[in-house]
Amino acid sequence: MKNFILLFFLFLTPILSDEIHVSAQELSADEASKLTHLKGDVKIKRLDDRLYADEMFIYFNKQNRPTKMEAKNNVKFWLTLKDSRKVEGSADTLIYLPQKEEYQLIGNAFVKEPAKKNEAKGDKIIIEQKRGAINVLGDAKKPAVLIFELEKEK
After folding, report:
1. Which terminus of the chain faces fewer neighbouring Cβ atoms within 10 Å, N or C?
2. Average pLDDT over residues 70-95
3. Residues 6 or more apart whose Cβ sits within 8 Å of residue 80
4. Residue 63's CB: how many other CB atoms inside 10 A?
5. pTM for the full predicted model
6. Smallest Cα–Cα separation from 105: which of 119, 121, 118?
């Protein structure tokens, strides 16, 4: 068990240089397939960022660098973008692509920026962390929805 936990954290070390706290009811890492699976009450914390989900998969390349992280079911998150804006939201699935610093929220996607009372809802929302850009896509049954507050002229 100690070797398994050590292997798991060695997998996670390259993700970011900051300390990451991970907890789940079940953790498994497979060196051959370069896959780490977290299941049951998954909680990830890095600085002020948080991610909660029922299940998460982390895919690694040959150099043990993460190439994709996929959180599933009851996904909730709190993030700080590169421009220091804070956003939070939820989705059925969240995919993070570290090389692009891009989050893809899929299914019942919702993001809000509490400081400005901005909200976005859609079938898919893409957050480009570097640029601080958010793209919202609807589907045939539900259009993309934006709710924002206009600043009053002074």
Report:
1. C
2. 90
3. 47, 48, 49, 86
4. 8
5. 0.77
6. 121
